[in-house]
Amino acid sequence: xxxxxxxxxxDLVRPKIEEGRWSFFGGDLQTWYxxxxxxxxxSGQLFKAGSPHTGVGRKSTxxxxxHRHTYQTETxxxxxxxxxYVVNGRLGKLEAGQSYTxxxxxxxxxxxxxxxxxxxxxxxxxxxxxxxxxxENFVHNFYGYLSSKVMAGKRPSMIQVxxxxxxxxxxxxxxxxxxxxxxxxxxxxxxxGKIIGEMLLGYKHQYKEFDD
Length: 212
Fold this sequence. Notes:
The protein contains 3 helices and 12 strands; from the N terminus they run βββββββββββααβα. The chain is of the alpha+beta class. Strand 3 and strand 4 form a beta hairpin. Helix 2 (158-168) packs across helix 3. It is globular, with a radius of gyration of 16 Å.
């Protein structure tokens, strides 16, 4: 029996959807399906300039936490604006028309360059691994949860976040007890995300509010 009274009730809000585009953080982050099959998935994403959620660099609310994919490569193809990335501690930038592929196991994150002052549009493609990992369900649930909490002025639960990561084969660097930094991020996902989060507290990795 899930012990919901010990957890943090999600209070989820379904985002606005227009012409296939899902709007998170009041519309400052938009995502949409580009393509996908059994070998890959591509998500289109738009980060609005000037927003505290998407336009103030690495500290933006929607900036993915520093992470690595256990099995999948991740390719960033910039359509407009400028993308900044950090891969294994190395900084880089991509202009419109450029792309970069992060290998499985590499620590990385990315964000829109605030110095440019323009919206950034990027296509993100993942490939490899038996687990779909980063797919449309993950995008909708991960950003949908974060957006719901942040827009309500509440702090997201790390346990819920790790529950999402467990099912996506994604490892975060910053985890409870510092497990991610010492090579034990998989155990952090299992213990805190799967066992404590899902099995004991009743968190989910997919919510009906974010179904297509």
